[in-house]
UniProtKB/TrEMBL annotation, chain A:
Its main location: periplasm. It is found in: Periplasm. Residues 1-19 form the signal peptide. CDD domains: PBP2_TMBP_like. This is Sugar ABC transporter substrate-binding protein. It comes from Salinimonas sediminis. InterPro entries: Bact_solute-bd_prot1, SBP. The keyword Signal applies. Keywords: Signal. One of its GO terms (cellular component) is periplasmic space. Belongs to the bacterial solute-binding protein 1 family. SUPFAM superfamilies: Periplasmic binding protein-like II.
Automatic annotation (TrEMBL), chain B:
Residues 72-262 form the ABC transmembrane type-1 domain. It is a multi-pass membrane protein. It comes from the Bacteria. It holds the Pfam family BPD_transp_1. This is Carbohydrate ABC transporter permease. Belongs to the binding-protein-dependent transport system permease family. MalFG subfamily. The chain crosses the membrane at residues 12-33, 72-96, 108-131, 143-163, 184-207, 213-233, 240-261. Its main location: membrane. One of its GO terms (biological process) is transmembrane transport. The keyword Endoplasmic reticulum does not apply. It comes from Salinimonas sediminis. PANTHER family: INNER MEMBRANE ABC TRANSPORTER PERMEASE PROTEIN YCJP (PTHR32243:SF18), MALTOSE TRANSPORT SYSTEM PERMEASE-RELATED (PTHR32243). The keyword Lyase does not apply.
Length: 435, 276
């Protein structure tokens, strides 16, 4: 009888355990740091055996389309979403995200880098936790720079970049002085050119949401870009995005490359890069106006309002963006592979600074980026390489196509700017700005 | 003299056919070759066609990182389910349009085809909301329903074309022998139109297998087919071409094998009634 009872009790207990197990679905991008997170999630399972994880890993654009559809319709397919700094202010304003107010006492919110924390908060409430962050910087070949008789300053100007590009270019040997993004898209050439234009004193809109492509500052930006790319850039630059330029740089075809700080790990990786031990880093260039051409991007983890498992999702986010997670990655993959750009403590760690030669430049770049005051003149929007309004994906890509046409010579710089001005004016009128 | 000229023409036609086939097949060949390269070799500025160190590393990594067989099973169920469900509706629909025509039949056919002209994103939100409310998001059943509806106009059109080639007299004779509609379709029409039905089925399996808008939007972790599996290997930041190629090869091989073994049936069905 007793045996029967204890069996029944055990059965009931196991049933109750099954009933308590929750499965959360995590949507994420196919970037190296996220793949590592997925690999190491067995550690989370050990700590939280009652939470199962289901992963949906997708290419960035497909992921954006999918999670936007889901969050806007309250579909509830995902419990944790990987989103960028572009989405966080828009989505939190729409109340599509749950506030992250239960990350735990040990989480140490104050350790998050101020620029990052500010970009992910609305009225001091955190709506997304940073997983890894990046700015942009100059990566250059130290051997070619030396051969050209130049020394890269820690904080170069655009004029120095032009001079160095001219000196490093050797087209006969297949070496191009400067590689920049040329592929049309709001996350492609527009990311680079918007950040670059900030340093030239340009802005997308004035305080009354009037497009500013007819300004001298935009003309200076685009003329500089088209000129240096035509003279010192690789052939077919209008098709080049991050990966194409990475391939060119790693195979020794670029003297300088200005792009995401996350590339620092790729170009110094001896397994893939032929120039791993000949790379130097510097801050993104400026034009003497007080703003540098660096951007700020953060991949973050957030909980959609439609999630019914927000407690479990919160526990996962707390684990994945904690200091302990950074230590776990360091232990399993080495310090150089710890997700960068989120916590101040990482940049105080001598082991990390030793393993990642680009660490200090990354930190300085992130700290110098101010998404709430991105331009020389005041603007009504948030965002450095983007404008955080829902219409930006559409208009950003359309303007990117005009700029790409200017690069290929299908349009003059003036025509590209006029056309951009017209199409952005039309889009903003249609969207009824100023709101 | 005439034979010489005819031989020359034959050689030219053969060369042209091989060139066109080569051009069509080259991207697939390139993908297969890239899947055996390292990531560094895959992005090399001077790529090699065969002279490189062949590796299976991409395949082992892809298999370790993703539940390939779950995605494969989802693809099989969704594409076969949608094609069979589609046939069950399309056969009677095409029969009525081919043999019981009214003055509105042509208009109806054109209307059905016009639904294919609508960009899928135009109906995304209503379908998503509907699926959310009835609990069909991220389910195989939901995708079978969507795939069936998407491909139905093509199935009806294809079958209608095949059925039109069948002499009415045969069906009339069956009717005079006392066959009802059910017997007429099952015992007379279907055996005659079998090649057409088989090619319609195969073509729709291929279309459903390759569909990459709805299958990506309406699924998450449970019902995601091979299209989602491929999409997980592209990245805007980092090297991925070799692994993406391996994932693509693993996703298309099953359907290529199916196409290879059924090519005779497929060509026979597609050319059915093309030459009178």
């Amino acid at each position: 009888m007793l045996k029967k009872l204890s069996l029944m009790l055990a059965g009931a207990m196991s049933l109750s355990a099954i009933a308590q197990t929750q499965t959360i679905t995590i949507a994420t991008v196919n970037n190296g740091d996220m793949i590592t997170m997925k690999e190491l999630s067995s550690d989370f399972k050990k700590k939280y055996p009652d939470i199962d994880l289901k992963w949906v890993t997708l290419e960035e654009n497909i992921l954006r389309q999918r999670v936007t559809t889901d969050v806007a319709t309250g579909g509830g397919q995902y419990d944790v979403m990987t989103i960028g700094t572009y989405e966080v202010p828009i989505w939190s304003k729409q109340e599509w995200l749950q506030p992250l107010d239960a990350l735990g006492e040990q989480y140490d919110v104050d350790d998050l880098l101020p620029a990052i924390k500010s970009g992910l908060s609305v009225d001091d409430t955190l709506y997304a936790a940073p997983f890894y962050g990046e700015s942009s910087m100059v990566m250059y070949r130290t051997d070619l720079m030396e051969k050209a008789g130049l020394k890269m300053p820690k904080a170069p100007s655009w004029e120095f970049v032009r001079k160095a590009a001219a000196a490093m270019t050797d087209k006969a040997a297949g070496v191009y002085g400067l590689c920049l993004r040329g592929k049309a898209g709001w996350g492609e050439n527009i990311a680079l050119l918007t950040a670059m234009s900030n340093s030239f004193g340009a802005r997308w809109f004035d305080e009354n949401w009037q497009p500013q492509f007819d300004s001298k500052a935009w003309k200076d930006t685009l003329e500089y870009y088209v000129d240096v790319m035509n003279k010192y850039g690789p052939p077919g630059a209008s098709a080049n995005g991050f990966n194409e330029n990475l391939a060119l740089f790693q195979t020794g075809k670029c003297g300088m490359w200005i792009d995401a700080t996350v590339a620092g790990g790729f170009v110094t990786n001896k397994k893939d890069s032929e120039v791993a031990d000949k790379v130097g880093f510097a801050l993104a260039p400026d034009h003497g106006l007080g703003k540098r051409g660096n951007w700020l991007w953060e991949w973050t983890l957030a909980i959609p309002s439609s999630s019914k498992k927000s407690d479990a999702a919160m526990q996962f986010i707390s684990w994945a963006t904690s200091k302990e997670y950074a230590e776990l990655v360091a232990e399993k993959k080495g310090w150089a592979n710890v997700p960068p750009g989120t916590r101040a403590s990482l940049y105080e760690n001598p082991e990390y600074l030793n393993a990642a030669p680009f660490a200090q430049i990354t930190l300085d770049s992130i700290n110098s980026a101010d998404p709430k005051n991105p331009t020389v003149d005041p603007v009504p929007y948030v965002g450095i390489q983007f404008v955080a309004i829902p219409e930006f994906q559409g208009i950003g890509t359309a303007v990117g196509q005009q700029f790409s046409a200017a690069l290929t010579g299908r349009m003059t710089v003036d025509q590209a700017l006029q056309s951009s001005q017209r199409l952005v004016e039309r889009a903003m009128r249609k969207a009824r700005y100023p709101k | 003299m005439a034979t010489n000229s005819s031989n020359k023409t034959k050689v030219i036609y053969t060369l042209v056919a091989w060139t066109i086939s080569g051009m069509i097949f080259f991207p697939i060949l390139w993908t297969i070759i890239t899947s055996f390269k390292t990531e560094a070799e895959a992005i090399s500025a001077s790529p090699s066609l065969f002279m490189f160190e062949w590796t299976l590393e991409n395949y082992t990594q892809v298999l370790a990182r993703s539940p390939y067989f779950d995605h494969f099973l989802n693809s099989v169920i969704i594409s076969l389910g949608a094609s069979i469900a589609g046939l069950l509706v399309a056969i009677p629909a095409a029969w009525s349009m081919a043999f019981v025509q009214t003055k509105r039949t042509k208009g109806l056919l054109m209307w059905m085809l016009s639904t294919k002209m609508l960009p899928p994103v135009g109906v995304l939100i209503p379908i998503y909301l509907l699926f959310r409310d009835v609990g069909l998001l991220d389910t195989r059943l939901g995708l079978v329903i969507v795939m069936t509806l998407i491909n139905l106009p093509i199935m009806v059109w294809m079958l209608y074309t095949y059925f039109r080639e069948i002499p009415h007299e045969i069906l009339e004779a069956a009717r005079m022998d006392g066959a009802g509609i059910k017997e007429e379709i099952l015992t007379v029409l279907l055996p005659i139109a079998l090649p057409g039905i088989a090619s319609t089925l195969l073509l729709n399996v291929i279309l459903a297998w390759n569909e990459a808008f709805w299958t990506l939007i309406l699924t998450a972790a449970h019902a995601a087919p091979l299209t989602a599996f491929i999409a997980s290997y592209s990245s805007p930041e980092g090297l991925f071409y070799a692994k993406l190629s391996a994932a693509s090869v693993m996703a298309v091989v099953p359907i290529l094998i199916l196409g290879w073994f059924s090519q005779k049936q497929l060509v026979r069905g597609l050319s059915f009634g093309a030459v009178k």
